[in-house]
From TrEMBL:
<dbReference type="InterPro" id="IPR027417">
    <property type="entry name" value="P-loop_NTPase"/>
</dbReference>
<feature type="coiled-coil region">
    <location>
        <begin position="234"/>
        <end position="261"/>
    </location>
</feature>
<keyword id="KW-0269">Exonuclease</keyword>
<feature type="coiled-coil region">
    <location>
        <begin position="523"/>
        <end position="607"/>
    </location>
</feature>
<feature type="compositionally biased region" description="Basic and acidic residues">
    <location>
        <begin position="736"/>
        <end position="745"/>
    </location>
</feature>
<protein>
    <recommendedName>
        <fullName>Nuclease SbcCD subunit C</fullName>
    </recommendedName>
</protein>
<feature type="region of interest" description="Disordered">
    <location>
        <begin position="736"/>
        <end position="755"/>
    </location>
</feature>
<dbReference type="GO" id="GO:0016887">
    <property type="term" value="F:ATP hydrolysis activity"/>
</dbReference>
<dbReference type="GO" id="GO:0006302">
    <property type="term" value="P:double-strand break repair"/>
</dbReference>
<dbReference type="GO" id="GO:0004527">
    <property type="term" value="F:exonuclease activity"/>
</dbReference>
<feature type="compositionally biased region" description="Low complexity">
    <location>
        <begin position="746"/>
        <end position="755"/>
    </location>
</feature>
<dbReference type="InterPro" id="IPR038729">
    <property type="entry name" value="Rad50/SbcC_AAA"/>
</dbReference>
<feature type="coiled-coil region">
    <location>
        <begin position="656"/>
        <end position="715"/>
    </location>
</feature>
<keyword id="KW-0378">Hydrolase</keyword>
<feature type="domain" description="Rad50/SbcC-type AAA">
    <location>
        <begin position="5"/>
        <end position="182"/>
    </location>
</feature>
<keyword id="KW-0175">Coiled coil</keyword>
<dbReference type="Pfam" id="PF13558">
    <property type="entry name" value="SbcC_Walker_B"/>
</dbReference>
Length: 959
């Protein structure tokens, strides 16, 4: 990385734009940023860091207040850096987020953070304007983060002095930032997490194992072992369960045999008792049959008569139905006759007259349609009369309105033309009005600027006079100044003599080169003020002349009135144009409406005349066809109704004759069926008839009585030797059977339980053995992982008590110690070198990050805290440079900055440090020193100097 140019504006203590050319400063490889405390030395380093990473190092970056408090509100705050990295030259311009006063009114406005990266050479890609894109590009090119850059390129000695004296934990945090050992922290975390997962798996499998042991013990109805159970316990338990199952099988078999014998005795007793009960019931049934035998014969006779009369009942029901239908047909015939009589019919041929009347009504169909059309046309004529009158009124009113339009239309066009002309003149009038308003202000500003110019001219002339006076006085006292530079034994720079017999003596209040330089600076400042005042006065004078030329002799009040009038008329242009367009549209709509009304009126009058002629001609035909009826439609409807009534009456009379004939035939059929069934007449047959449910009940009653008698006789024939009075002990045999059954059930249940326990325990034993197989490798893996995790985290068998991350940091710190020792030995003339210690600290503090100093004068190793102030600076500088060499391995760092700390060194040590810094310039590297030490200012000749930072302080950049 090589810096070329840096510009800052409104940044830190720099109120205006300041620029640093590093190409000029770094031409010799070494330059100095020199100035008083607060002059802005470190701010330039902050500007470099901010341009690259958008933040500044240390506590200053936590404040996030980068804008200069006394910068002008129009001055932008930004940092502009041009540099080359890996052969690519580019420019970064970055602005922070800050509050600036509003340009108008009170309060402040927020300026958002911005950044841009522009390629200059070595790369043809597009630039970036997003903060994230620029950050990725910069980190990719530099190969380091912001924290690493702050430690490697901006070497803050104070922080490395604290690093020397820091405890292990603080040193570890710094090294983590520099070397990016987060991945090793991730490894440690991964091992801890993996151990937790493995421990959870072990615990889970252990829980399964304990649960299976518990379940096996429960299945065996035993207490689980306290030690968790093993193969010997499981084998013993399964053996006891097998023996218990064999014992239960033997007891169950003996109880089953006893139960079978008891059951056999009980079944035989039940069979004997059942035969006795059957004989007793059979004899009781025969006795009841003898009692109901007379009623049985009556039931059979009633059933047979009902079966014979069953064919007569349906025929009689059909006869009754036909009788009801005949009555209904007669009623319909009477109603049809009344309807024919009501229509005035006097004839006798119902069907013939009906056909004739229907033909006559059909001949009137076309005339009926014309009658309906006649009524529609008559209503249309009345409506057309109304339409003609209404249209005539609308047309007259519209013509009256159109007569009033031309004056209004002309006035609207005139108003639009006036507004258009005003709009065209508005810009010119507005400019004149603005110039009239601006003229007093510019005149007043010009007078003030002219007064300031005169004051500046007087001040500059006075400063020039003072400078000339001081130069004259210095020239007059130059002999004293030259005499002050004479040294005994050295030649005089004027005459060349080595003897100085009578040198001029110092005078009181003599003028020196410093006085002349200060006067020259005052003269230059006064000249700058004068030039700015003259430029401002000239600019305002030119503006004032231009305004007066524009306005001429016209008074401002007249211009203001004209502007208001023209602006008001111009503002009405759109509304007037809209009003004119609306009026024109209204006139066009009225003209269109007038044409439409005229066409409608003509069409209505023509249609009215045609309809009147057609109605008169059609009316003559209809008058002749209507006869004695009001109209043709009424006559046609009467003829159709009478024809339908005649046809209906003829149909009703035929239906009555048909029903009378069917009823007579049905009555003869009923009489025949009653005679065939063996009854004297129809009345006897109907009296013997029974409903189907009654007949079914008789059938059931007869069948039950006969079935009971037959069953009783069959039972007595089957069991002729059974004594109905014999007694059988069924209860006693049943009680003995039940006791045997209970004992057999208990034995069977015990056998089932024993078998279930044995089966369940065997199944669980298989699961337990499988759980043992799963648990053993997991426990072994966990034991190995637990020990390895402890070692990685500095515990267990880790004799150095160092975590993996600490071990890596210790290795990198050892590299830093080796690189730093080479520089420390040269700067301390071989007295000191760094010693990396891996020993654990007091009170269990982890080791690996110890850093001591070997003092070759005493041959003793001692803590870095015991070094003096100057020695601490040397050690800190060596450590910073060594760290830069290690961290920047592989990165090209052409520019380094070393911040402060030189004030603690004596002349001899400072010489050694400067020699070391000269070595850093090898290969084109540029080293920048930040210090207020005067001796460094004397050692590094001035090339660029005096950048104004803020009132009361200045900064020198020397090389």
């Amino acid at each position: 990385m090589k810096l070329h140019r840096l510009a800052v504006s409104g940044f830190g203590p720099y109120a205006e734009r300041e620029e640093v050319d590093f190409d000029v400063l770094g031409a010799d490889g070494l330059f100095l940023l020199h100035g008083d405390t607060g002059a802005g030395k470190t701010t330039l380093l902050d500007a470099v860091a901010f341009a690259l990473f958008g933040k500044v190092p240390g506590a200053r970056g936590d404040v996030k207040r980068l804008r200069c408090d006394y910068a002008h509100r129009d001055t932008q705050t930004y940092v502009d850096l041009e540099l080359t990295v890996r052969g690519r030259r580019f420019r970064i311009k970055r602005s922070p987020e800050y509050e600036r006063p509003k340009k108008r009114g009170d309060g402040a406005t927020r300026q958002q953070a911005q950044v841009s990266l522009t390629w200059i050479s070595g790369w043809t890609g597009e630039g970036h304007s997003r903060i994230d894109d620029v950050a990725r590009e910069v980190e990719g090119l530099l190969g380091m983060t912001a924290e690493q850059f702050f430690q490697v390129v901006l070497l803050p000695q104070g922080e490395f002095a604290r690093f020397l004296r820091a405890e292990t934990a603080e040193r570890e945090k710094l090294l983590e930032k520099l070397f990016g050992t987060e991945r090793f922290l991730d490894v440690e975390k991964w091992f801890r997490e993996r151990r937790k997962e493995c421990k959870r798996e072990v615990d889970q499998l252990g829980l399964v194992h304990r649960d299976l042991v518990q379940r096996v013990a429960e299945a065996a109805h035993e207490e689980p072992p306290e030690a968790g159970g093993d193969q010997e316990w499981l084998s013993s338990l399964l053996k006891r369960l097998d023996e218990a199952e064999r014992d239960a099988d033997q007891v169950a078999a003996e109880a089953g045999a006893v139960r079978a014998d008891a059951e056999k005795d009980w079944q035989e007793a039940r069979a004997r008792h059942e035969r006795v009960l059957r004989v007793r019931q059979a004899r009781r049934n025969l006795d009841r049959y003898a009692e109901v035998e007379p009623s049985l014969r009556e039931w059979i006779a009633e059933r047979d008569a009902a079966r014979q009369a069953a064919v007569v009942v349906p025929a009689q029901e059909r006869s009754v139905k036909l009788d009801r239908e005949l009555a209904a047909a007669v009623a319909h015939e009477v109603a049809a006759a009344d309807a024919v009589q009501a229509l005035g019919y006097q004839g006798a041929d119902l069907r013939g007259d009906g056909e004739r009347l229907r033909e006559e009504a059909g001949s009137l169909t076309s005339l009926a349609a014309e009658a309906e059309r006649q009524r529609v046309d008559q209503r249309r004529i009345v409506q057309l009369d109304k339409d003609v009158a209404a249209t005539s009124r609308q047309l007259a009113a519209l013509v009256t309105q159109l007569d009033e339009v031309p004056p209004k239309l002309a006035a609207a066009k005139t108003a639009v033309e006036e507004s258009a002309e005003a709009a065209a003149r508005l810009a010119q009038v507005s400019g004149l009005a603005a110039a009239a308003v601006e003229l007093p202000r510019v005149d007043r500003a010009f007078r003030e600027a002219d007064d300031a110019r005169r004051v500046a001219v007087d001040a500059q002339q006075k400063a020039r006079e003072t400078l000339l006076r001081i130069r004259r006085e210095r020239l007059d006292g130059m002999a004293v100044e030259l005499a002050g530079q004479l040294r005994a034994g050295h030649e005089c720079p004027v005459c060349g003599s080595a003897e100085h017999p009578s040198p001029a003596q110092p005078m009181l209040n003599a003028v020196t080169a410093v006085d002349e330089e200060r006067a020259a600076e005052e003269d230059q400042r006064a000249l700058d003020v004068r030039q700015r005042a003259e430029q401002e006065s000239q600019k305002l004078e030119a503006r004032l002349g231009l305004l007066r030329e524009q306005l001429g002799d016209r008074p401002p009040a007249e211009l203001e009135r004209e502007y208001r009038s023209v602006a008001a008329s111009a503002e009405q242009l759109e509304s007037r144009q809209a009003a004119l367009a609306e009026l024109e549209d209204k006139v066009q709509r009225a003209l269109d409406q007038r044409g439409t009304l005229e066409r409608q009126l003509t069409e209505a009058r023509t249609q009215h005349a045609q309809l009147v002629e057609a109605v008169e001609e059609r009316g003559a035909r209809l008058e002749e066809a209507r006869g004695d009826f009001p109209d043709v439609v009424t006559r046609r409807a009467h003829l159709s109704d009478l024809a339908d009534a005649l046809t209906a009456l003829a149909t009703r009379r035929a239906a009555v004759a048909e029903h009378e004939e069917r009823l007579a035939d049905q009555r003869l059929e009923v009489a025949r069926l009653a005679s065939d069934a063996g009854f004297a007449d129809v009345a006897d047959a109907l009296a013997a008839a029974r409903p189907a449910a009654a007949v079914a009940e008789l059938e059931t009653r007869i069948r039950d009585v006969e079935k009971t008698r037959t069953a009783a006789e069959s039972t007595l024939a089957e069991l002729p030797d059974v004594d109905p009075d014999a007694e059988v002990d069924v209860t006693g045999t049943e009680e003995r059977f039940r006791r045997a059954t209970d004992r057999a059930t208990e034995a069977t249940t015990a056998r089932t339980n024993a078998r279930t326990r044995a089966t369940r325990a065997a199944a669980l034993a298989e699961q337990l053995r499988a759980a043992w197989l799963r648990l053993e490798p997991v426990e072994a893996e966990y034991a190995e992982l637990d020990a390895l995790t402890d070692v990685i985290n500095g515990l267990g068998q880790n004799s150095k008590s160092m975590t993996l991350r600490t071990y890596v940091l210790a290795a990198r710190l050892e590299e830093v110690a080796v690189a730093a020792s080479a520089r420390l030995e040269r700067m301390s003339q071989g007295r000191y070198r760094f010693v990396h210690s891996i020993e654990a600290g007091p009170r269990g503090t982890r080791g690996g990050l110890g850093l001591d100093v070997m003092d070759d004068y005493s041959g003793q190793q001692r803590p870095a805290k015991t070094l003096s102030g100057g020695e601490s600076f040397l050690a800190s500088l060596a450590l910073a440079l060594g760290l830069a060499d290690v961290v920047a391995a592989g990165a090209v760092l052409d520019t380094l900055f070393i911040d402060e700390g030189f004030g603690t060194l004596d002349a001899e040590t400072l010489e050694l440090v400067m020699t070391t810094l000269d070595e850093l310039r090898a290969g084109g590297r540029v080293v920048g020193l930040v210090s207020h030490v005067e001796e460094l200012r004397q050692r590094i000749p001035t090339r660029l100097r005096v950048r104004k930072a803020r009132e009361g302080s200045s900064l020198e950049l020397t090389a």
